[in-house]
Each structure stands twice: as structure tokens, then as C-alpha cells.
Automatic annotation (TrEMBL):
Native species: Microbacterium plantarum
Membrane topology value: Multi-pass membrane protein
Protein name: Carbohydrate ABC transporter permease
Pfam family name, one: BPD_transp_1
InterPro entries: MetI-like, MetI-like_sf
Chief location bin: membrane
Subcellular location(s) per record: Cell membrane
Amino acid sequence: MSTIGTPVPLATVEEGIPNARKQRRGGRARRIRGSRPGFWTYAILGAVFLSAVFPLYWSFVIGSGDSSTLRKPFPWIPGGNFIENALSVISNPAVNFWPALWNSIYSSFLIAAAVVITSTLAGWAFAKLRFHGGPGLLVFVVATMAVPQQLGVVPLYILFSELGWTGQIGAIIIPALTSAFGVFWMTQYLRQAVPDELIEAARVDGASMIRTFWTVGMTAARPAAAMLFLFTFVGAWNNFFWPFIVLDRQNPTLPVALSLLQSNYFVDYSVVLAGVILATIPLLLLFIFAGKQLVSGIMAGAVKG
């Protein structure tokens, strides 16, 4: 007998609604419970964290000891000589610590800011503007990342020597004002983060291309630009090869200045690693104060995207 059209008792329907709700809640709870990280996730993250923190801790252990710290058995607990070793680094006349620190801050900030500006402009052009040869030019820019930095050292040194810039801080700023990786990074981000309809709407409203870039492109590019600024600043801060070649002892950056601690006949590694810790502290402060804003910016950009 067909049951189509047979009325269902209201009591049966009312009893079925709570059961359906319980089933939905149970399925949602199982999905949420199943999406929580397990033991191996925390174990892998813990191993990665320890492998990243251990070199810094080991440097602090050696930097807080004395000249006999490296003798066996190796210590695992920091000593009490870190302040003394740090003061010996700061007061060393061969290091020029404070001028070197200022040179590193000044050059790293200018390089990071210039890379963000030029990369965002170029990324906007490659991502949202249509012009002949655009894809091929982007491939050429990306291909330059395969060229080792060492190949350009000799021509760059000859050029800056002819200009009389050797020994000056501008010699390490000018070659780093733009970055092929930064252009590629901003191109890929703007291509996905900014819809073409938004640009067309801004142009219909009468905005010029510069105004559209400033109001639409720069607003959307803030998370990626912040990450690019941070990575570029860290890379410029830690750069040693080119500043070591083109700068002199009277006007070094901090990594070049700290390398002079190893130029003596006897190398006190506790003092050397105390200097390494001093050079790492500004980067740690940068990550501490900017980390939360960077993560929140990335999450906001992901939600908007």
C-alpha cells in the first residue's frame, strides 16, 4: 500500500527534531574533535622549536662563561660572565660597536623600506596591468634569483671604487634597493588578493591608476608587505659577505665589526658569542613587538581573500 500523502503524527515530528539536532551536534563535535592536533603534531612542533632555540641557548651558555668554557666537559648551564663579556665587546676599540650598530639599523631599515616600495609597485604592475612583454619580463626577473651574488662582486666593487663609495654605507644600500624575490612575492599576493572587479569599480568612479594603487593595492598588500619588510630587514642585518668586502674597519656594519673579534692570535669564544647574542637581541625585539601585528595582518588578509 502506498504511503505517499499519509499524514505524519505531530508527536513523531516533534520527537524527531531533537534527535536530528543531537545528531548534528554529535557530528560537529566529532569533526571539531578530529581536527584537533594530535600527539605527533605537538612532538614535531616541539622538535622544530628545540632545534631552532638550541643554537641561541648554546651561544648564550658559551657567551656567559670564560675562556675555559669550551673545555670538556661542556657546560649546559649559563655562567655569570655574560655582562662582563658583553661590556668587553662594547668597549673594544677595534669593534666600534655603537657606530656599527647604528650602521646596521640604518642600512637595514632603508633597504627593507625600499624593497617593499619597489616590489609592491612592480608586483602591482605585473599582477594587474596589461602590457606587452609582461609575462616574459616577470620570468626574467625571477630568473635573476638563480644568479649567485658572488658573480657581481667584482663589477660592483670596481664601480663603487670608481665612484669613490668604497668604505661608505651607501655602497651596501644602493645594490639592495630592490629584490627579485620581493617582486615575485608581491606579484603572486596581489594577483590573488585584489579582484579585477574592484579595480574596474575604482576606475569607473574616476580614480587614476596611481590613486587606485594607493587606495586599493596598498591596502590589500599590507600583510604581504609587512612580511617582506621583516624578512628583508633580517637578511640585510645578517648580510656579511658584501659589507665585509666594500666597507672598512672605521665604518662597518655589526656583523663585520664582530668578525674583528676573531682577528687576534688568541680567540676568546666567550667574548665572540657574547657579541653574537648582542647582535641577535635587536632581531628578537623586532619579532616580539612585530610578530603579533604580522600574524593578525596575515589572518585578516586571508579572511578577506
